[in-house]
Amino acid sequence: MASKIDFKDIAQEVLEGKYEQVSGTDATFLYAESPTSPMHIATLLVVEGSLNFKDFKKIVASKLHLMPKFRQRLMRVPMDLDYPYWVDDPNFELDLHLNRMKLADPSNWESLRRTTSRIFSAPLDLRRPLWSIHFIEGIDEIPQVPKGSVAIVSKVHHVMIDGSSGVGLLGTLFEKDDKVKPIDKSKIKKFQPDPLPDDLSLLLKSSYGFFKNPLKLPKSVANTAIALVKTRASKTLSIQKEFATARYPVPNTIFNGNISPKRTWGTAILSFDRVNGLRKLAGGSINDVVLAICAGALRRYLLEKEKLPMQPLVANVPISIRAENDTSHNNQIANMMIQLATHIEEPLERLEYIQEQTMLGKARHKTMGAKTLVKMADAVPFGLANLAARIYSKYNIKDLHRPPFNVTITNVPGPKNTLYLNGHKVVAMFPLTPVVNGFGLIIAAFSYNGNISITPTSDAKTMPDAYLFSRYIRESANELEKLILARDKKKTPAKEAKKKSESTVFFNALKRYLKKETALVKKYKGLYHIGVDMGESSECWEIDLTKEPISIKKTTALDPKMLMEIEDENLYALYKKKFLFDELKIQQRLKLSGTVADKRKFSNLIKAFLSR
């Protein structure tokens, strides 16, 4: 006789919220999975010395209770009517996730790179907990790595973690000193999996979630609409327009075709102090310098293949919106779109262009609200995201439109100090990231223990020579460093040096802007001058919009017919949107001289530029 269904128990299970559901953002990584695009993140670790496999296995086993999802698997809702749920895997076996192997001869870097590529190319089993570790012994011929060292290749599905939470996992597995700590078995919690829910339970839980918040979709859309209205209204507050692909067309490149299942990758290791030194000399952020280095390598790579488009490549730059005290392992990321200035030959001018783009992107992102963007993924009703992803891939819809971006460049700050595993030093870490049809190149910058590794991941069809591109990354960094240092040496000795103008970027950006805005030049045709006070010295700039081509340059004489006087630091702050034009005018921190008509024209010209 069949057992009766206890609806009371099922209802209680639903109300208790026993099972965690995959978020809309996490689900996008699950639905993007395909035979050519396994959606896992990998990390290659090189560990110094002969680490014993049995000891390593004990360490992993002792830490599993601290990472619940590593013993959970996904369970789909019947007919995919809602996002899947994380459930305990009653059949979990650690041996199914740990793999021991020896590096093939010759046991050098090239052999390790090929082996890692093969491991990374293989998909994870979606019926089990979504991770695996390969323990590779016998590294004997890599310079600066002791003979007999080991490599560890870990794979974790992107539905489980993002880059920042992945860094958090390292703190769980590794130690901060070289002392061998005995495993305290008393602190290890025995795995007692909860019973698997039945289909009816999952259906009721999904239905309960919907009826509990039936306006989830309208609320998210309404919140996004409000954010967009605020964005439009903020034009008068010197906040730029949304990134528009019509105005900034994204070119088609060799990185935006169909991919093959075989992964390729390479890496360039740079000193963090070296990159940070360039950041200090050039201004901006570490991320700006990394983007400029990658842009230089991309330009050279495409030039040599005669595939460089006239328009600048556009990078998708993921940014973490995770709170500092958030230790959850789910994905909390948003994206900025940055033009990489690959159409500009001169590296310093390219860096300056990128600095302006990132500044604009951060302001756009701040105005929109990162959490509003993430909520949009959760607002997709039930299985539509799954269906849309499958249709997009199956019918190559990407071929019917321009790509939204060309390449992803992600910068994840890792541990600053040395990590150890059972007393053995972790020499280096290299992140490998998933690629999909239409987006065949992703570049991951990861900092660890005084170095930044910049690792491009692609496939055998898109970039079979990833090792060559990695060399171009190193050479791009060398070229940029040489030019920045040479520019710095041209300055007079520190004691006699004039104060460096910070606001030069304002005039360079204004010139690029007006070259594109021909209608604006005609509207505000005229001759304008700006005097920049730098304390012990000053600079005079002339903005000539009376002829073609327009001219913005330093001059030795100011024309009082139309003159703006401002301190250097205030002009730079105005460019960085820390002040408003009218705010500085009211506070008399900028002074305008000239006719009423000329002052109005000039003011409107500058406001249009600042609100771009």
From TrEMBL:
Residue ranges occupied by any O-acyltransferase WSD1-like N-terminal domain in the UniProt entry: 23-290
Native source organism of the sequence: Croceivirga thetidis
Segments passing through the bilayer: none
Swiss-Prot/TrEMBL keywords: Acyltransferase, Glycerol metabolism, Lipid biosynthesis, Lipid metabolism, Transferase
EC id: 2.3.1.20
Reaction catalysis annotation: an acyl-CoA + a 1,2-diacyl-sn-glycerol = a triacyl-sn-glycerol + CoA
Domain SCP2 per the UniProt entry, residue ranges: 507-607
Name of the protein in question: diacylglycerol O-acyltransferase
